[in-house]
Amino acid sequence: MKITAVETVPYAIPYTKPLRFASGEVHSAEHVLVRIHTDEGLTGVADAPPRPFTYGETQASVIGVIEKIFAPQLVGADVFARERIHALLRRTVGNPAAKSALDIALWDITGQAVDRPVTQLLGGWTDRMRVSHMLGFDTPARVADEALRHRDTHGIKVFKVKVGRRPARLDLDVCRALRETLGDESELYVDGNRGWTASEAALALRELDELGMTLAEELCPADDVLGRRWLVGQSRIPFVADESATTPAEVTRALLDGAATAISIKTARTGFTDSQRVLFQCEGMGAEVVMGNQIDGQLGTVCTVAFGAAHASSSRRAGELSNFLDMSDDLLTEPLTITDGTLAIRDRPGLGVVIDDSKLARYRQDH
Ligand code: MUC
Ligand code: MG
What we know:
Elements: E1 3-21, E2 24-38, E3 43-48, H1 52-55, H2 59-74, H3 82-90, H4 96-114, H5 118-122, E4 128-135, H6 140-154, E5 158-162, H7 169-182, E6 187-191, H8 198-210, E7 216-217, H9 225-234, E8 239-241, H10 248-256, E9 262-265, H11 267-270, H12 273-285, E10 288-291, H13 298-308, H14 312-315, E11 319-320, E12 342-344, H15 357-363
Parallel strand pairs: 4-5, 4-11, 5-6, 6-7, 7-8, 8-9, 9-10
Antiparallel strand pairs: 1-2, 2-3, 4-12
Helix pairs in contact: 6-7, 8-9, 10-12
Magnesium ion binds at residues 191, 193, 217-218, 242, 264, 292.
């Protein structure tokens, strides 16, 4: 089966609740819908969420690199020769969201072609994952209210709390309020998005540990090489590399250098193919993983749960699968629902999603 065209559609969907964190903020999901068309009439779909504050991509750069560089190389290529296609993609550095969307769209086509859900092709371990909800910067009372609302409405019992502000007391008070409001039944962990120095993070970690945090993610920059190693060495909480370990090679370096003891896997930046490379590498090296969220909408979330549920090691921890709850709308004909704090896979061929044409017409920005 041959690729005949690659289509890119920029769209923007406003957030009802913007997400604020140490490295940026998001008020509107300005993403790119990517579709790969084939000569057998099958079409694969995926979402590319550009994150300039993390990878330098923008909506325009995702469209530009796909239209000018990737599409001309991919048209005519065999959908099932995925490794050959990846060799072509690797000739261009960077652009993780653009490359991942192409990879995921190819897996969607493959699943449809063999009439199997992608999650089964990847590993078929289980049919759902526990959900972890990401809480952005706000006052202690408002963050605690938000967590309670998500617990009571969706049954969510795991929360990732954004930290990394100065003074750290702002965030420590939020964490304390959450622990007091939710009690010990809820799991809490933190993500600093590189906001603190190693020494600020070391001080904060004492209190975070006492509050029973289960993971500490990117509390200081990995580029502060010795400070980061010093911090990770003294952390009693598993220390997660997210934006500092975005490729298989960076993951190896992070683990061998002592810059992290666990890894966040995001299908929006390593697709399915490289996410599997990272996952198997982490299994081989004995490092835990968490399925992360690149501030995804529903399509991206379908991909994260499809991948996470496919393997024992990626489904052990709760996955970050609920960011779409903070968006005002979405593009899927059948919206996702979180029940009892879990999200089920789509038990349909490929990714199992249908894009709502009228919604895409409303939110698309190219006409
Ligand atoms: C996260 O885990 O860091 C914030 C920036 C980004 O790229 O993803 C989010 C969530
Ligand atoms: Mg993170």
